[in-house]
Amino acid sequence: MQSFEINTIGQAHQSVGLPAPKHPLVSVVKTVEFKPTIDFRGLRVINNLYQITLKQLGCGNLMYGKNSYDYEEGTLVFTSPGQVTIFEGEMPNDKETDKGWTLAFHPDLIRKSKLSDKMDRYSFFQYDVNEALHLSEEELRTIEGLLDKIVKEYSQNLDKHSQNLIISNIELLLDYCTRFYDRQFYMRTNLNTDIVSKFERLLKAHFHSDELQNIGLPTVHNLAKEMNFSSNYLSDLLKKETGKTALEHIHLFVIERAKNILLNSGKSISEIGYSLGFEYPQHFSNLFKSKTGMSPSEFRNLN
Fold first, then answer.
1. Residues 3-7: contacts with CB within 8 Å, 24+ apart?
2. Which secondary structure element, helix H or strand E, spans residue 78, and what is its range?
3. Residue 8 DSSP label
4. Contact (Cβ atoms closer than 8 angstroms) between residue 78 and residue 104
5. CA distance 115 to 106
6. Which of 99, 122, 191, 262 is the most exposed place for a label (fewest CB within 10 A)?
7. What is the pLDDT of residues 154-203, one digit of tens each?
């Protein structure tokens, strides 16, 4: 499969037939204005920009794969530098009815700002496309109001305040998206409860496997993949529902299982570590002590 790499805002504009951007590091463009110079179908597009895209339901050619939506005013998809997108299906023909848009900004825009240090908190940039954010009409108006301010700032004569104001509005937009994702998690409580139960079943099945010593400890990545989620989305969902991330759930399960074995068997600490899927017994001892405040031997002797 051929690849196409986007490294600059100017290159992004050129690939969809738009004139040169007004600002070299940030741009807001409307889907209806796209006149692609490249047929993206079947291409691996490596995007080295931060990008937030509004997709209208039923238009565009990204495969979503969702069964239901909370709202139908539009869907936000987030991508961070280095992510790969594969486009499938037909290129959209009814652009006159497409109200979609894309906010793109280069990492250099925020590199020296406080937002740069904060970007890892916006875990939805690592979500899969089918974990997109579905907006209400009011939420969409809020987001697009901030977009208008960003466009206004980079469209006028730039001064010493321009970059800070652009970055501040991007940060506020991302903070609102965090709030809206929280709303989406909350509205899907019944569905999320089923997901939590499935995660717990998979975790138990993994530790009951006869192959545990060969396949090792379960990882968030592998469990999420088995459930058709991204690691970040699954972890955030579990955090909202249970107060613990996926990794915290795994560690808690390991420690509880280790406690039972320590108290009910004569196995050595090394044997217990290996039986739980640890490659090195010391890693087991370190994790146990970090979670309980005592070594496995101390816990066994205490009881």
1. 3/43, 3/44, 3/45, 3/46, 4/38, 4/40, 4/43, 4/44, 4/45, 4/46, 5/45, 5/46, 5/48, 6/45, 6/46, 6/47, 6/48, 6/49, 7/48, 7/49
2. strand 74-79
3. S
4. no
5. 13
6. 191
7. 999 989 999 999 999 999 999 999 999 999 998 888 878 889 999 999 99
CATH number (domain holding residue 247): 1.10.10.60
If asked whether residues 286 and 205 sit together in one domain, one would say: yes
Q: pTM score, two decimals?
A: 0.80
Is 70 exceeded by the pLDDT of residue 69?
no
- Structural domain of 12: 3-187
Cα separation, 102 vs 31, in Å, equals 7
Q: What secondary structure does DSSP assign to 222-239, as a single string?
A: HHHHHTT--HHHHHHHHH
Domain limit, last residue, from 153, 170, 187: 187
Question: How far, in Å, CA of 74 to CA of 85, rounded?
Answer: 19
- 209 plus 181 within the same structural domain: no
Tell me the C-alpha distance between 186 and 127, whole Å.
Answer: 17
